[in-house]
Structures are given as structure tokens and as C-alpha cells.
Amino acid sequence: MARRLKDPADWKTDILHCLEEVKRLAGAHSEARMNRRPEEGTWSAAECIRHLNLTAALMAPKLEAAIRKAKERGLEGEPPFSTGWLGSWFLDGSGPGARPLPVPGRYRPEGSRDDAPSSSLDVARTVAEFDELQQRWLDLIEEGRGLQLDAVRAPSPVIPILRLNVATWIEGMPGHQMRHLKQMRRALGDSGEGEG
In this predicted structure, which of 8-22, 107-121, 164-178 has the lowest mean pLDDT? Predict the structure, then answer.
């Protein structure tokens, strides 16, 4: 059964919300706090951002190629877009409220498997990279304007046989980010008011 996806304007709103929240959290907490792991085997807030950077950076070229292909094939179209059962399963499993799943190695922040109480990421650099990647995703949405984004597929960079339509991948990114924003807030003990 097909599932109707959000409008591209909502994708943009969600991406900008995630960007604002990452900047707020990074601005409200010290570098040491952003790198502190709440307990052994968990990620720090900075590692959550790094994970989001890795996923976005690996996926963006796949979507750029798929959008080029859609343009070459003349696949014109407008929202609403939809996804099938596999895309629905993916969105439900990667968004906020989904059960944690094992993270493939290519998406794991460097050093995240060690048992140190803190990570050692440069938070300003990690947030700047997040900002750049969010802009890249906003550019992808613009590049896809006027194209039938649910008629062209792109493979996962980690599991190439997992091929979803471009609209599903784009909708999934901010949902995945919102999931990890919740994880970041838990790691920081942040209720939305910073360290005070």
C-alpha cells in the first residue's frame, strides 16, 4: 500500500528545524559536555552529530546522481509523492521513536566503540560540517523541483540492494536527524534550556 509523503516545503522546514536545534544544543553546552558520553557504550552529543554528518555525506552523492538521471530521462512531476511498503518500513524504522538498531560501520563516528568516558570531536567543526550538509540537502530539494522524485530510485551507500525512491530518502533524512536530536538531548540532560 502506498504511503503519501510530506510536501517538499515540509522537508525544508524539518531540515532547518534540525539545523537550528543542533546549533542551539552546541551553543548551550561546553565542548567537554558535548563530548561526554552519558554511559559506556553510548554516544556523546557530538558523536550523534558526526553520525548524522556521515550518513548525509554518504547519501547525498547517490541522490545527486539519481536526480541527474531523472532530469536526463525527463521525469517531470510534482508532489504529492508516495512510497511503498519498503519505504514506509524504512521511514518508520529510522525516524523519531524507532527502536535503536545496530549502526553500520561506515556510519559510526570514529572512536565510538572505545570505552572512554568522552569523545574528542571538535564540536565547532562538526557543527559547521552539519550546517554545510544541511545546505546540500536543501539544494537537493531545489534540484529536484519539477521532477517526479518518487519515480527514480537511489541505492543505500551501505546496503546497495536497498533502493528507495529519492523522495523517500529525502524525507527520511530529517526524520533520522530528529531521532538523534532526541538522543543528543538525553545525552546532555537538555530539556531545551541549556546548562543554565
Answer: 107-121
Hey, what's the cell of 106?
A: 561506515
pTM above 0.85, yes or no: yes
Which backbone phi and psi does 42 adopt, to 5 degrees?
A: -115, 165
Separation in Å, CA 89 to CA 52, 95, 131: 20, 10, 28
**What one-character-per-residue DSSP string does 42-58 give?**
S--HHHHHHHHHHHHHH
Q: What is the Cβ-side half-sphere exposure of residue 40, based on CA atoms within 13 angstroms? A: 3
Which tens digit of pLDDT belongs to each residue from 51-75? 999 999 999 999 999 999 999 999 9
Which domains are assigned to the chain?
Answer: 3-188 (1.20.120.450)
Q: Which three cell numbers stand for residue 104?
A: 553500520
